[in-house]
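Whether sequence alone determines local backbone shape is best considered at the level of individual chains. The sequence in question and its structure tokens are set out directly beneath this paragraph.

===
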Amino acid sequence: MVGSELDLLPDDINWRDEGCEVFGSCLNCPLPRCLEEEPRGQQRLRLAVRNKRMVELRQGGKSVKEIAGLFGVSRRTVERALKNQRLKRKSVAPTF
């Protein structure tokens, strides 16, 4: 060992599983990587959820203007979110 650093086993560390603002428990989190370790992880998750909801509302018949009003964003933001979701779906679609 270098210096006075201790190499403690996990059993010797007093750690509480407090989770984050998104999930209440780190050990039971369904995500493959921790949002707090990803650059802008929580922000990206919130935006992804918001954009998915925008698509659902649009498919349900709401206008872009109505959706923008619901989320407090510009019409252009809604249009961009809808376009990005369409592009993601196309890139995930299987090709035969």
Notes: The mean pLDDT is 83. The chain has one domain: 12-92.
